[in-house]
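Write out the 3D structure for:
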Amino acid sequence: MSRLKTTSRLILAVFMLGAGIMHFVKPDFYLKIMPPYLPAHYELVILSGFCEVVLGVLLFVPKVSRMAAWGIIALLIAVFPANIYLFQNPDILPAPPIFHLLRLPFQGLLILWAYWHTKSKSQDESWSDSPCDP
């Protein structure tokens, strides 16, 4: 399982880096999905992009990757209102309605993915040694 988990962590790191960089390359997209009740839209877009980049980089560092995974969870929860706002206002991003609906549980899957990387190797091993395993 170690190789699978390492590969998964690296893929998540690349995903976070890519998503974070896009905040700087195409901030207009992220500005469109900012809920109006939040202040300083541009600054929040840049801040969330910066956090995604930093957390993605930290996932590459095994000694701090567990903390980075917790940071990713916090960040995904923090940006969830933008996904809700996009779902409620689908005209912002022309796409089939199912696309907007699926973004919501996809965020939950990303959180679960990051959560897997909050576990230490010993926690993974004790979980796999459970009495329920055949």
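The chain is about 75% helix and 0% strand.
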